[in-house]
Amino acid sequence: MVADRPHCLVVGVGAGTGLACVRRFVGGGYKVSMIARHAERLQSFAEETEHTTAYAADIVDLDGYRATLRQIIAEQGLPTKVIYNAALATFAPYTELDTDLFERNFRVNTTGLLVTAQELAPGMVAAGDAALVITGNTGATRGTPRFIGFSPTKASQRILAESLARELGPQGIHVAHVVIDGAIDTPWVKETFPERYALKDVDGIVAPDLIADAYWHLHCQPRSAWTHEMELRPWMEGW
User: Fold this and answer.
1) Is the dihedral of CA 211, 85, 8, 228 positive or negative?
2) Are 53 and 46 in contact (CB under 8 A)?
3) d(CA 214, CA 223)
4) Domain extent listing, the chain
5) Which CATH architecture has domain 2-232?
6) Helix, strand, coil % over all residues of the chain, rounded to 5
7) Contacts of 111 (CB under 8 A, 6+ apart)
8) Confidence band, pLDDT 50/70/90 cuts, at residue 3
9) Average pLDDT over residues 153-165
10) What tens digit of pLDDT does each residue of 75-95 get?
11) What pTM was computed for the model?
């Protein structure tokens, strides 16, 4: 019975890391609530994967996103395992970067994480055995040309994750930030960075299932040995 399963929430479910995490946690015995912007695609994931429920929401609309989180609690119960995988990016030279898109990316990548914590963490503290894992990126650790519409938003997300970890850790919530240093095997990467995607044949990009396995490990860590920041990168990635 779905009602007998513990509850996991994955925020930002696309055909890559998010969906892989959904499947990994379902396989680990959880029921999973899924949030993404694209309602039809999300519903198709729910129809293909048992023990899941789709909730369409656009994090740019913070009030609407809060309402969705509250709806999930009302309908599914409080999630004690949460994965924040939502992300938006804009790639352009600084002279051409649309400031509205720049601020939109901050809202999804950073403010959305804060709202998630505000809505869920107090209850997670009370429930115990809770964890929040955040999908980070190398852009959070260094600035590069054309990534100005992305890297600052991920850097702010990273420091927010650390702030949350320092406050919530002593209250019993394991907050972990995972730096993905490399291209991920997704349709978007295949279309946008074909030269990077071609490295898939030599294990040069990250498989979403392996990211999901790492997230599962983080969620299962005993509190005497928590990891806050983890880095995942292909063997051939320069760093």
Assistant:
1) positive
2) yes
3) 16
4) 2-232
5) 3-Layer(aba) Sandwich (3.40)
6) 50, 20, 30
7) 62
8) low
9) 97
10) 999 999 999 999 999 999 999
11) 0.95
